[in-house]
Each structure stands twice: as structure tokens, then as C-alpha cells.
Specification:
With about 190 residues, the protein is an alpha+beta fold. Helices cover about 20% and strands about 30% of the residues. The chain is built from 4 helices and 7 strands, in the order E-E-H-H-E-H-H-E-E-E-E. Strands 1, 2, 3, 4, 5, 6 and 7 form a 7-stranded mixed beta sheet that branches.
């Protein structure tokens, strides 16, 4: 974490008890935490993006810890990640923040082994991003296909990146379109 200059932290929590159907016994709780960091590559091109990749695991550990706290002690069953890059950077800077070290730390933090879905884009303060969510142990478990929309009112500024980790406690309420069920997953990260 000492390698990133974090200007601000934002936490967003949603609790869904019903989605037009009857209230469910176990609500869906989604949490996302955003760290607004200084972009060391803002305003310049570099082939080497190591200043974002190398320290990203430590950032993921902190983001996941804050997300888990926002879930109020409930177990995280799905996850996703994302980044909005300020206009003096490039989309690749957001991807660099979220690559393998970040994803591995996120999986380890929630006891998962599935693919961590992600989204990146360019934007300015107030830009919204939809962070895709998927089951932490098997990407193809359809009931977990979901998203959480995040908007940081003060970031990213032109020389910043808003890096987001998101967790949820279960799949969608009232899911009923079939597909691979959670109990059928074989734990290979996909199915």
C-alpha cells in the first residue's frame, strides 16, 4: 500500500430483499470499496507499467478487507473488480492495477478460485462504472451473474485512477433461469 498514494476511499453497500417477487429469507448484500489513487503514468506513455502492477496485490488486500467489513461479517460468495482511469492516463493503466497480482490477492482474500470478472474505462469525476460480479469458485454459475454500479463524485481526477473491489453475499434474489447451480460446480474456476 505504501507504493500507492491514496487520496480517498469510498464504500458503497446495497441490500436487496426482493426484486418484484416475495421477500427472501437471505437478502443479497453487495459491497464495493473504491480507492482513488495517483496515477504514476499520467501524462506520459510507458511500455513498463510495473509501478501499477507490482503493488496492486497490497491494494487488493486492503480493498477486500474493507469490502468484507462492509458486508457485516457475512461470507462473500461473489466478486468483481474495476477501474476508472482519469483523462491524463489510458485504459491500460486501469488494467495494470487489476491484473494477476490483484486478482490472486482478491481470490485469496475470499477463499475463491474462480475467474475474477472486471471492467475498466476512462472517465472523469462522477463517471459511473458497472462492476460485473460472478461466483467466487466457478464463473459459469449463472445465478451469480450480476453487477454493482459505482460512481465516485470527486474522482478520478485527470491524474488519478479509481480502483474498485466488489463483493456480494449470494446470487441474485429470485434467480430462476436455470444453468449451472452453485451446488453443481466442480471448482475448476469455470464450471
Amino acid at each position: 500500500m505504501n507504493d500507492f498514494e491514496v487520496r480517498a476511499w469510498y464504500t458503497h453497500v446495497e441490500q436487496i430483499n426482493s426484486d418484484s417477487g416475495p421477500a427472501v429469507a437471505e437478502p443479497l448484500v453487495k459491497a464495493a470499496v473504491t480507492a482513488v489513487i495517483k496515477n504514476p503514468y499520467a501524462g506520459r506513455y510507458s511500455e513498463d507499467l510495473g509501478d501499477l502492477i507490482a503493488p496492486s496485490a497490497a491494494l487488493a488486500i486492503e480493498l477486500v478487507a474493507r469490502c468484507k467489513a462492509a458486508l457485516g461479517g457475512a461470507e462473500a460468495e461473489s466478486c468483481g473488480k474495476g477501474a476508472i482511469v482519469g483523462m491524463d492516463g489510458e485504459q491500460e493503466h486501469g488494467v495494470a492495477c487489476l491484473t494477476t497480482p490483484f486478482g490472486d490477492a482478491m481470490r485469496n482474500g475470499i477463499g475463491g478460485n474462480g475467474w475474477v470478472t472486471s471492467a475498466t474505462k476512462m472517465g472523469t469525476a462522477g463517471t459511473a462504472i458497472d462492476i460485473p460480479l460472478a461466483y467466487k469458485n466457478a464463473l459459469f454459475v449463472r445465478e451469480f451473474y450480476d453487477a454493482i454500479t459505482i460512481c465516485v463524485p470527486t474522482g478520478p481526477r485527470a491524474n488519478e485512477i479509481a480502483v474498485v473491489a466488489a463483493l456480494a453475499t449470494r446470487g441474485r434474489v429470485h434467480h430462476r433461469i436455470g444453468g449451472l447451480a452453485k451446488h453443481e460446480a466442480i471448482g475448476d474456476g469455470l464450471r
